[in-house]
Amino acid sequence: MAIRTHIITEKDDLPEVVRRYTRGIAQPGDVIALSESMVAITQGRAVLPQSVKVGRFADFLRRFAHPDGSLATPAAMQLAIQEAGLPRVLAAAAAAAIGRLFGRRGVFFRVADRGLNLIDDIGGTLYPYDRTIVLGPVNGQEVARRVKEATGVDTLIADVNDIHCVDIIGFTGQEDPRELLEALRNNPQGNDDEQTPIVVLKRVAS
């Protein structure tokens, strides 16, 4: 069940927001799934690109990023450097160049930092975040734990996209999350302007 919310900002208290919107809907045994962008935004990690001072390395390296990727703009690459550190990003770029020679993809993010893969560059559809770069959330496991404390329901934070890729950032449950991954693979939270960053997953008796 996807739950529509107000436009979330960094002024929102995430556990309280989730508790309020899921009250009477989520029950023990369910799982509350939160979008990673929602979590990141409440942490103040939505950045206006014009506020980023781009260095020469970022301007150079972004030319090698996939044009449809999340690090294709100078500001996004600069933020990636600030997140992971320049030496690590340079090492990742070198490893990616070698990987391409052997037809291997995704080497850059494996070497640089898994979290860089969570950066959402400019081009979103929901105002005002259609003008910002949204970095990945920090301390995902701890955030999930605090939301569970507020709601009494197991909580999962996930990065989901429209090409059926799911990445779990934090999860308070004890069970194998593969079943939950399948439930999220069709992206019930949406990547457009649905404004439904909270999804309550309920088990249905077979």
TrEMBL record:
Name of the featured protein: Coenzyme F420-0:L-glutamate ligase
One Pfam entry name? F420_ligase
Which keywords are on file for this protein? Ligase
The EC number on file is 6.3.2.31
Protein species of origin: Carboxydichorda subterranea
Q: Which GO terms describe its molecular function?
A: coenzyme F420-0:L-glutamate ligase activity
* Superkingdom, taxonomy of origin: Bacteria
Q: Which residues form the Coenzyme F420:L-glutamate ligase-like domain?
A: 3-83
